[in-house]
């Protein structure tokens, strides 16, 4: 019976996978067909074939092969000359275009500096305290990189960082006052930089300090504004200051918790079963001194300076004092990561931008061209077309950020520093807001939980903390931009019903038998499908069209209610099926982790019984503490909350409080 049940379950799973793959493939082909009409490099027969395919796939009809223009072409902003099959390349996204243009220079810098960093780490391998060699090297390395980027403009963030360091050294450890000062200075400086830094000049600085400076000194300072002064390859240093703010806060709060006794350093001879980034976040090496050298090396570390991933001070400084020996830093693992996880996704993204112009179409709002209601001279843009564009834009965003973050993580790994991975799951394998943010910008999510969610009370004030977390994220990304504020409001608003539904499910479906009922699985899948729609709409508002663009899309749906209902029914079916498959996959992963944890606990208990056979009670206590309690301490405290989403979960919040 068990074997028959598993076979039936596998058959159902195969059918669902086939349905989801077929639906996503048809939508991708639809978007490719919509993209062809904007590309003059495609031949007439191919255009006719795509136009026919588009008419067969869409509710609204699709475009024909002429559109009143030669070969149906009208210039679409953001398209550039490509290198694949004569197709145009969608470079309408500023972030992606800037990164792609500078990728050869970044790759050359990564190769050269990684080799130098590895050589320095080999030289420090036999030292009792590797920091005596690595910290001076990284300070010079980071300062040179910052000057290369910003020229003399790097003096501005350097002064702000030094002022924050002095404040942290003076105030960290004070009960209640310390965190307020650490956060207050960092946030106030960030706001000032976002709104005023582009107006700052060295001449105005010299004028303000004129009572303390001679005339010659003022002239030398003012000369740094001259065009002949080196301005670097990225003179707008304030663009990257928001990431610098995260590192400044991390240093200040880690120092505060260390001084106040909320977190302990590793003890001499303390051997942890997990010698990795996550362990050292809550339990740094005992050699970490929170010195100026460690601080400067941390805030200017080149692989993480431009885009992340986000790494805590404790974890970074611990690796300066004693380099990690984890598997991810081995040369073979780094090479495999470079080939499969970075280069492979980069190639997929290049093919995507040469064949799917969804981002360019959405940024230009082509559904408004040539008439109202989405029925312009460049084809019909009904509910199906607009919905497909929205989903494809979200996939493009995932690919873009995956390539960028994996490049900089690869740079760090090649240099011998382990940092967190950001994109933990495929964008289409998410059905909840909490799960989405746990896997999207995972390192930033852990930072939010550690430094905002848990200190504000964790799960005790979950609904209030959600607004604080998403409000900070929306303001942090850019100076108060309404599209990001609206983005934060959308996700914070929909988290409340998501949590309520999760609580109801946990209350009435507690046992595995209850959760295996079809009614539970259908309801869960339907809720997951609805939340996927929220994820698509929210990210369209925040990163592509804004709230006004979303209202325009809503009017398109209202103009053709019948097509809108058919499209919604089809997308709900597809996304609910995808959500069900994702939930089942997570259940299998949880079961595998529980089995592994039981095996580890059994090995630990057996080791304790062998080691302390003379005193059974004492051995059980000590061994159990080392295996379970010690591991909970290593992964617990504030570190245990790293697995939570921005809004956290009850275990994460309570774990953080127990650690303190």
Description:
- Helices cover 68% and strands 2% of the residues.
- The chain contains 26 helices and four strands.
- It is globular, with a radius of gyration of 27 Å.
- It has helices at 2-36, 44-57, 94-124, 131-150, 155-171, 177-196, 202-208, 215-222, 241-260, 277-282, 292-299, 302-305, 313-321, 331-355, 358-364, 383-414, 433-439, 442-453, 462-477, 482-508, 512-515, 518-543, 546-559, 561-611, 616-635, 650-659; strands spanning 79-81, 88-90, 375-376, 379-380.
Short summary of the structure?
The protein is mostly helical. It has helices spanning 2-36, 44-57, 94-124, 131-150, 155-171, 177-196, 202-208, 215-222, 241-260, 277-282, 292-299, 302-305, 313-321, 331-355, 358-364, 383-414, 433-439, 442-453, 462-477, 482-508, 512-515, 518-543, 546-559, 561-611, 616-635, 650-659; strands spanning 79-81, 88-90, 375-376, 379-380.
Percent of residues in helices comes to 55-70%
Strands of the largest sheet, in order across it? 1-2
Q: How much strand? A: under 5%
Q: Which structural class should the secondary elements be placed in?
A: mainly alpha
Secondary structure: number of strands: 4
The H/E string reads: HHEEHHHHHHHHHHHHHEEHHHHHHHHHHH
Overall radius of gyration: 27 Å
Descriptive keywords:
about 650 residues, mainly alpha, two-stranded antiparallel sheet, 26 helices, about 0% strand, disordered C terminus
Blueprint (SSEs and pairs):
Elements lengths: L1 H35 L7 H14 L21 E3 L6 E3 L3 H31 L6 H20 L4 H17 L5 H20 L5 H7 L6 H8 L18 H20 L16 H6 L9 H8 L2 H4 L7 H9 L9 H25 L2 H7 L10 E2 L2 E2 L2 H32 L18 H7 L2 H12 L8 H16 L4 H27 L3 H4 L2 H26 L2 H14 L1 H51 L4 H20 L14 H10 L1
Antiparallel strand pairs: 1-2, 3-4
Helix pairs in contact: 1-2, 1-16, 1-24, 3-4, 3-16, 4-11, 5-6, 5-9, 6-9, 7-8, 14-16, 15-16, 16-22, 18-19, 19-20, 20-22, 22-23, 22-24, 24-25
């Amino acid at each position: 019976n068990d074997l028959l049940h598993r076979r039936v379950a596998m058959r159902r799973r195969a059918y669902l996978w086939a349905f989801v793959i077929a639906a996503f493939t048809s939508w991708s082909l639809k978007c490719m067909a919509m993209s062809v009409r904007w590309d003059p490099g495609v031949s007439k027969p191919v255009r006719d074939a795509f136009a026919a395919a588009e008419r067969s796939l869409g509710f609204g009809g699709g475009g024909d092969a002429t559109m009143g223009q030669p070969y149906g072409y009208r210039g679409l902003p953001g398209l550039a000359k490509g290198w694949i099959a004569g197709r145009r390349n969608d470079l309408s996204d500023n972030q992606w275009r800037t990164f792609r243009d500078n990728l050869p220079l970044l790759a050359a810098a990564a190769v050269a500096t990684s080799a130098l960093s590895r050589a320095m780490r080999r030289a420090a391998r036999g030292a009792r305290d590797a920091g005596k060699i690595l910290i001076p090297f990284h300070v010079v390395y980071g300062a040179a990189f910052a000057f290369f980027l910003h020229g003399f403009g790097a003096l501005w963030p350097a002064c702000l960082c030094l002022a924050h360091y002095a404040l942290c050294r003076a105030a960290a450890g004070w009960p209640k006052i310390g965190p307020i000062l650490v956060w207050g200075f960092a946030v106030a400086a960030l706001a000032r930089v976002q709104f005023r830094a582009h107006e700052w000049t060295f001449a105005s600085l010299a004028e303000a300090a004129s009572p303390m400076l001679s005339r010659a000194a003022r002239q030398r300072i003012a000369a740094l504004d001259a065009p002949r002064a080196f301005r670097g390859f990225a003179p707008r240093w304030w663009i990257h200051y928001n990431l610098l703010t995260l590192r400044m806060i991390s240093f200040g709060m880690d120092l505060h918790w260390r001084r106040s006794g909320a977190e302990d350093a590793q003890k001499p001879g303390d051997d942890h079963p997990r010698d990795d980034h996550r362990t050292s976040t809550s339990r740094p090496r005992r050699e970490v001194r929170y010195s100026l050298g460690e601080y400067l090396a941390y805030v200017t570390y080149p692989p993480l300076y431009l885009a992340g991933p986000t790494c805590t001070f404790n974890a970074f400084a611990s690796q300066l004092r004693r380099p990690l020996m984890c598997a991810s830093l081995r040369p073979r693992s780094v090479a495999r990561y470079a080939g499969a996880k970075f280069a492979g996704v980069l190639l997929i993204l290049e093919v995507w931008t040469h064949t799917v112009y969804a981002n360019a179409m959405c940024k230009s709002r082509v559904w408004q061209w040539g008439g109202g209601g989405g029925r312009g001279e460049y084809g019909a843009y009904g509910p199906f077309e607009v919905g497909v564009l929205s989903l494809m834009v979200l996939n493009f965003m995932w690919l873009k950020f995956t390539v960028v973050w994996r490049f900089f993580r690869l740079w760090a790994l090649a240099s011998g520093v382990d940092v967190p991975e950001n994109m933990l799951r495929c964008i289409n394998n998410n059905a909840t807001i909490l799960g989405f943010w746990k896997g999207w910008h995972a390192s930033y999510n852990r930072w939010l939980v550690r430094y905002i969610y848990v200190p504000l009370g964790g799960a005790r004030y979950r609904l209030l903390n959600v607004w604080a977390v998403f409000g900070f994220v929306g303001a942090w990304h850019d100076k108060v931009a309404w599209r990001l504020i609206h983005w934060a409001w959308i996700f914070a608003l929909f988290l409340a019903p998501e949590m309520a539904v999760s609580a109801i499910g946990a209350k009435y479906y507690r046992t595995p038998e209850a959760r295996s009922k079809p009614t539970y699985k259908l309801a869960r899948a339907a809720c997951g499908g609805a939340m996927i729609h929220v994820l698509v709409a929210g990210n369209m508002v925040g990163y592509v069209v804004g709230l006004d663009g979303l209202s325009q899309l809503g009017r398109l749906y209202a103009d053709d209610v019948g097509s809108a209902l058919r499209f919604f029914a089809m997308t709900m079916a597809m996304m609910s099926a995808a959500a069900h498959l994702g939930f089942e996959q997570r259940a299998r992963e949880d079961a595998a982790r529980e089995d592994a944890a039981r095996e580890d606990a059994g090995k630990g208990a057996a080791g304790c019984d062998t080691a302390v056979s003379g005193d059974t009670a004492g051995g059980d206590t000590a061994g159990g503490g080392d295996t379970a309690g010690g591991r909970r301490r290593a992964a617990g405290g504030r570190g245990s909350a790293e697995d939570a989403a921005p809004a956290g979960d009850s275990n994460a919040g309570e774990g953080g409080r127990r650690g303190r």
